[in-house]
Give the backbone structure.
Amino acid sequence: YILEQNNKDKLDDKGLTDAEFAQVKNQVSHASFYDAGKWLSGENGRVYVHVQRGNVQLHLLVVNHEQIAGGKSVYEVINQYQAFKNPDEDMSRDRRFDVSLLINGLPMIHIELKNKAHSYMDGFRQIKKYIGEGKFQGIFSNVQMFVVSNSVDTRYFAAARDTELNSKFLTGWLDKENNPVGDYLEFAKAVLKIPEAHEMVSKYTVLDNDKQRLLLLRPYQVHAIEEMRRASKKGVSGYIYSAEAIADSGFAVQIPDAATSSVPVKVTAVEYVPDAYEAILQAEAAGLIAVLHYDETSEKMREWNKKTIREEYLAAAEHPEYRHFLKGNFPQIIRG
């Protein structure tokens, strides 16, 4: 229903037939959580299924990660979903899932809850068992993140095969002041509400292509990314220095059209600017300066920018928070 509603124009207001829906089911079922993660990363944040209707192939939008908490994003919570036993296995049993969070009909976060008399580790072992039994197949193969809690102690971890799950990957949440958030309701407010839940599985889930597994960023990394985003939206204060002339040293720097001086430069004026970005816009509007916008820059400058961003991304292998910042702001450049 959500898929049809979000693609009414492409479907020409005609619902999916059983055969077309079977094509969709096949494409949203994955051999591993990692494969699901690759598909869910989408094309510039847009995730599609492709349906053959007669001689025409329809590209139907499943999720748009650029429309978090808005647009065509629909969020649902289900509980006590029954995963039926496999009739071909004598030891197979029906299982009931506690809580699942769905984005546009796809289960992406799964939660197992225990009472205070039990450890959250019981929930971890239960999930590991269910994965081994093949309960997270079909549409549930799209789960990217698991949460376990006994109401007072809560942990999260990336989805993986049962043979790859390790308790050392269980992560507790910390707030911005580095205080533990163990209570399951406080954890839900910090991590599982919208937009945070959607961001966890779209912006803060990393594909480890070498080991073919998913990684979830830790709290300090998430907070660092969010702080960089906030800072990028604020005006930056600073000083503007003026000089009458600069004697070019001839020393090559990796910035097009920049020069360095071989002797001290005499500063003729200095001005403090409380908001540099706003000041630049005001000066441009007053005709005091001419601003060279990115789309007006030379091909040489653009290529230097692209090259620098790609090099920064490659060099930040041990700093996933910075990589996410670059990927989030320059997705087309990072993808090449």
Summary: The chain has a mean pLDDT of 85.
